[in-house]
Design a protein that fits this description.
By secondary structure, this protein is an alpha/beta fold. The protein is built from five helices and twelve strands. It has a single domain, classed as Rossmann fold, CATH 3.40.50. Bound molecules: glutamine (GLN). The site of glutamine has 11 residues, from helix 4.
Length: 192
């Protein structure tokens, strides 16, 4: 069985764990760096990127996650996780992992739109729209070479992939559609 770690420092951990179970994977709550040696893929959940980012440094995960991604192991960042995987946060000085060649803007859908559900077209997942839940979500403003855009909302990029790395600015663990977790599990399976 594929073992997927969910970084469990802060944020929407439980929902990812449940979704992974539903998809037939073995989820592991990651609280210590040693556990990373034992997993096939990692999810960095949504939450508050400044808090998760600080805890990543405090608990020694900073180099560990970079090393994991550089070994071409799959990493999926949702919302705050996307922010933390990015190269740079425009207009802010958050220390990011810099493993995904994208520049992002936080809380980019405007203050008045705290959360929204959008029927998203994600061609890689088939015809049926994906019910994407956005909560104070970031957008991806610039992407580097070999970064593939998987979905946009009103022309704004909200989901991309670069080889083993996947990010989305919405929360797939909060909807009842498991296609994105299955897509990530397929990625892990291919690399194993
Ligand atoms: N607004 C949060 C941040 O910038 C992200 C929100 C989320 O993960 N749902 O860190």
């Amino acid at each position: 069985m594929i073992k997927i770690g969910v970084l469990a420092l802060q944020g929407a951990v439980r929902e990812h764990i449940q979704m992974l179970k539903n998809c037939g994977a073995t989820p592991i709550e990651i609280k210590r760096i040693k556990q990373v040696d034992d997993i096939d893929g990692l999810i960095i959940p949504g939450g508050e990127s400044t808090t998760i980012g600080k805890l990543i440094v405090d608990y020694g995960f900073f180099d560990k996650i970079k090393e994991f991604a550089n070994l071409e192991k799959p990493v999926y960042g949702t919302c705050a996780g996307l922010i933390l995987m990015s190269k740079r946060v425009i207009g802010e000085s958050i220390k990011t992992l810099n493993i995904m060649d994208i520049e992002v803007r936080r809380n980019a859908f405007g203050r008045q739109i705290d959360s929204m559900e959008v029927g998203l077209k994600i061609p890689k997942l088939g015809e049926k729209e994906y019910p994407a839940i956005f909560i104070r979500a970031p957008i991806i403003e610039n992407i580097g070479e070999q970064v593939e855009t998987l979905a946009k909302v009103d022309g704004k990029i909200v989901m991309v992939q670069k080889k083993n790395l996947l990010v989305s600015s919405f929360h797939p663990e909060l909807s009842d559609d498991n296609r994105i977790h299955n897509y990530f599990l397929n990625l892990v399976d291919k690399i194993l």
